[in-house]
Inverse folding.
């Protein structure tokens, strides 16, 4: 474990006060204690994710969305060419249980529905999103490594699909269980907002459903949907096609994501199982 570098430490100290590193993975983000209160420090070389995250968290605060609050930010690259943000800590844990907890999965969907009540028009800081994790070219990866027949059928289904249809709502943009915090089966907030933006709710709904299917099996996706629809008081639109969008927004081989999944407590999953579950989720969507 390592703490923030000297220049980052000086910046955090000047912005929020003297701190004691509590440890995190090398390179951050770091959890540090300031005057008995824990905060999170993130630093990176790319400006855009920090601009998006700060704008998203400020919007979340304005509408009472459960998320970290921004305590300090450097969007000018003053940290030796790096950018940084200091946020409050959302209580709870992001570790993902092995067993299928219906109440928790419904609560995940409900938390997203509460977020999606916020209607947002696109801005430079919170752009229009048509899928999750837009800065990664998953399409190229699928063309190189994915099952050709699945990709071809999926592309045919999505041909002409208006991904900008319906109300434009506040999107997290990378909504899976590892980016949510929990106390028991109650969701206390969402973290890691650097992919946020605005767009159809299906971007987040499909992402959550795909994640649930990968981590717990196909039936778990419908528990998430049930929670979203109960909280929203309406049916989610175009579920099958947003499921296809979400499935294609993952690596062709989910072994690429396995270290992150294992780090969230799911060391029981192997690449073959995770990929097979994602493919089953995609086939089910194509069959509807």
């Amino acid at each position: 474990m390592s703490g923030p570098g000297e220049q980052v430490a000086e910046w955090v100290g000047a912005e929020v006060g003297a701190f004691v590193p509590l440890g995190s993975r090398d390179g951050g983000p770091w959890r540090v204690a300031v005057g008995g209160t824990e905060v999170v420090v993130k630093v990176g070389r790319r400006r855009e994710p920090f601009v998006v995250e700060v704008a998203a968290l400020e919007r979340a605060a304005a509408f009472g969305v459960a998320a970290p609050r921004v305590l300090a930010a450097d969007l000018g690259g003053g940290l030796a060419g790096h950018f940084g943000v200091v946020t409050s800590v959302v209580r709870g844990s992001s570790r993902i249980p092995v067993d299928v907890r219906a109440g928790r999965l419904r609560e995940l969907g409900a938390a997203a529905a509460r977020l999606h009540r916020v209607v947002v028009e696109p801005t430079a800081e919170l752009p229009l999103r048509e899928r999750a994790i837009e800065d990664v070219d998953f399409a190229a990866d699928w063309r190189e490594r994915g099952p050709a027949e699945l990709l071809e059928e999926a592309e045919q289904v999505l041909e002409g699909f208006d991904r900008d249809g319906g109300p434009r709502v506040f999107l997290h943009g990378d909504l899976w269980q590892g980016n949510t915090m929990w106390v028991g089966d109650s969701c206390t907030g969402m973290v890691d907002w650097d992919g946020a933006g605005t767009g159809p709710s299906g971007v987040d709904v499909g992402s959550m459903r795909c994640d649930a299917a990968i981590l717990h099996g196909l039936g778990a996706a419908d528990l998430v949907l049930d929670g979203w629809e109960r909280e929203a008081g309406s049916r989610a639109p175009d579920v099958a096609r947003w499921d296809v969008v979400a499935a294609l927004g993952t690596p062709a081989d989910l072994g690429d994501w396995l270290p992150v999944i294992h780090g969230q407590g799911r060391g029981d999953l192997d690449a073959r199982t995770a990929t097979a579950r994602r493919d089953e989720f995609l086939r089910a969507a194509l069959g509807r």
